[in-house]
User: Fold this.
Amino acid sequence: MQIYVHVPFCRSKCRYCAFYSEPLRPDSSERMTRYLTAIREEWAWKCARLAELQGTPPVITSVFFGGGTPSLLPAEALIELLDMLRAALPFAADAEITLEGNPESLITPGRLGVLARAGFNRLSMGAQSMDRNDLALLGRVHQPEDVRTAVHLARSAGFGHVGVDLIWGLPGQTARTWLHQLEAVLALEPDHVSAYGLTLEPGTPLAMDVEAGRLTLPGEATLSDMYLSGSALLERHGLMQYEISNFARPGAVCRHNWGYWTGKDYLGIGPAAVSTLGHRRLSNPADLDRWAAGVAAHTEPEVEELDAAVLAEERIMLRLRTCAGLNLDDLAAATGQDLLAGQGRFVQDLARAGLASLEGRVLRLTRQGMLVSNDILSRLLEPPVFCH
Ligand code: SF4
Assistant:
């Protein structure tokens, strides 16, 4: 089993962000104390429920501290949370323990060393860009040199895996400037790069600027060039693609996210955290106060029962994001759904257009297909393929 810990604090709100997080404010230190108290209670309560449901305690293979900006919490608080998880459930000897963080909160000398010694072994850093203008446009509070410093500090602190997150497709960006960004990151020799195409989230300042014509996004041909040439550059540097937006050196795939894409159970704690346990999905309120009040009252989080049709759709969506692809026999065995029975002709069309390949019973999107994966998936999952 995997554990996700949501830490809902950020230095300030980035201009493109729609994740649940609260920017630092004068009472943030009390808010953090409230958060830490509630998460201890939630963990104790969830462990007791898990023991009732599962009997034998599950072995933890990965923990991901995400957010938000988990690296904003004091190191002692992060270590205390990790120790709390370890005290309650058995951890695999090689458990992957990821800390997500932003460069400006990672460059305090000595801090990363303390965290590495306490057991954090993977750092996922939100760089987003190596260009000052892009960082200002995104509302990020760090500078490119902070990324360089943080990567060096993480290496010397002993973090086994260091990953860097970037966003491409920004207003004013060209394929050439994007490749420069990637080269600047590759010079730091990361073990992992997540390169996400910009998604404009309605209501964010960046989306409003684009809607009002104050900023212009790159056109489709440029976006396609960015994705294809950027992926090829990463692979030339030994970072092999394993998912639409993720590239890793051999042995450095993010096990936690891989587990998510391949349908492993995970337990989420913290506001906005989601858990998937078998056929049930539990979602915590995306609000620190409502979540903390619910924990104190032992109110069950919102529960969704996942029926066979939902499980089949999710398996198709998640597996087709990966380069390993979707095994149609496994899909049929797990869900009773035969994808080719309803969509055989569409799959053939995808293969003819170079957007997918069907080798034996494994369906994969090509890189061209990954570029338009949203369109392909919405067509693939159209009714009447699966009936609820
Ligand atoms: S640091 Fe991340 S979670 Fe926080 S506001 Fe920026 S994008 Fe959102």
The pocket of iron/sulfur cluster is lined by residues 10, 13-14, 17, 19, 21, 67-69, 102, 126 (CB under 6 Å). The domain at 2-260 is CATH 3.80.30.20 (pyruvate-formate lyase- activating enzyme).
